[in-house]
Amino acid sequence: MSDGPSGPAVHNPYAPPQSVVADRDAVPDMVPAGKWIRFLGFFIDYLCYMGISFVFGLILALTAGAQAAQGALAGAGQFFFGLAIYLCFYLFFEGIWQRTPGKFLFGTRLVSQDGQPIPFPRLLGRTFARLIPFEAFSFFGRRGWHDSLSGTMVVKVKKT
């Protein structure tokens, strides 16, 4: 309380609380990752996804036999096998660390627009938004669809 013109100020318990409200867009630690870093991270993630798919396909072929694995992965089976690995890949990495292998490699991470970790339902929506055709190239525009639809952003990790 400051002194007024007539002497020291008196504490008023009915006065509204005074607080400083920070602008949520002015968070200094949140520097958005560049488009090329994101593209290279996507490329690394794609290679990891393909490697994991290969390993699971190989395990399936070795345990069930090559003919049975080919039959299981024919037609729609291949689509659902790939979709399951795809969803598990992103939900595992981004759900636990908010980072995929590509984000680890290039020093970026996933956050909500206010800099907080992503709740699982929003993360699930973000992962499904990646399935929109040509969505992987949408971040060459202003902002990627999977980010804008889910209220997330990829930022550079602060080096300590």
Please name the defining characteristics of this protein.
50% helix, elongated
Please, could you describe this protein's structure?
The chain has 160 residues and is mostly helical. It has one domain (32-151). The protein is 50% helix and 6% strand. The chain has a two-stranded antiparallel ribbon. Helix 1 (35-64) crosses helix 2 and helix 3 (76-96) packs across helix 5 (120-129). The longest helix has 30 residues, at 35-64. The chain is elongated. The model has no long low-confidence stretch (mean pLDDT 84).
In brief:
The protein is mainly α. The chain is built from six helices and two strands, in the order ααααβααβ.
Distance between the termini: 38 Å
pLDDT averaged over residues:
84
- What is the CA-based Rg, rounded? 24 Å
Helix-strand pattern: HHHHEHHE
Write the layout of secondary structure elements.
Blueprint (H helix, E strand, L loop, with lengths): L34 H30 L1 H7 L3 H21 L4 H6 L1 E5 L7 H10 L15 H6 L1 E5 L4
Antiparallel strand pairs: 1-2
Helix pairs in contact: 1-2, 3-5
